[in-house]
User: What shape does this take?
Amino acid sequence: MYETIKIETDARGVATLWLARADKHNALSATMIAELTEAATSLGADPAVRAVVLAAEGASFCAGGDLAWMQAQIGADAATRAAAAHSLAAMLSALNTCPKPVIGRVHGNAFGGGIGMMSVCDVAIAASGARFGLTETRLGLIPATIGPYVLARMGESMARRVFMSSRLFDADEAMRLNLVARVVAPQELDSAVEAEVVPYLACAPGAVATAKAQTRALGPKIDADTIEASIAGLVARWESPEAAEGIAAFFEKRKPAWAR
Assistant: This one.
């Protein structure tokens, strides 16, 4: 059914949503973005599903945006860029508003959009040894559509430590930044995720969904205007000379003009 993701649901109704582009470090392509949106909507509407585990195959959790996809945006017209940004924003919103609890199983590195994927989980558990980074500014871009969710997870003061510098950080710092709830040894990751899942199986599903919606309503405001502003910010950066230079430099395996 899907090309870039897999869904496995056990007898208890625990669905594991696997990112399955291991050869591309689970970078977010247009196809993966569309499939994740559909999967989040479908799982959220399925009364047999009690909880969702967001996991990934291969060495990495998610390397962020697929660079070939981003390169295509540089050469696209404004309408095409806006449509691509809307697709990414819709995927993040679908995961964020999924009425089922979403637990992130972060076994490996996550960069850029991968941080956004972690931030829309209700709780994320990371394996020690994983590395993280909001690396967009190295390419002349910004963490735009993921920004509202990253800020909601970290808070402004914590986000400002890593949001603009493209600095990489380890799992322990990710926990201090409130990006992940726990850091465990890789061999303990599955049991730690299971410990987050099990309590939900004793809860009324409708009450869980309503309580989750309430937390969003009482927390930082991520409404249509906020999302549209993040999309506009991304499109503007795609149209900038810095983005053209940054992405060109990446593919040409050289330093961009601003690098010192």
Notes: The chain has eleven helices and nine strands. The mean pLDDT is 96.
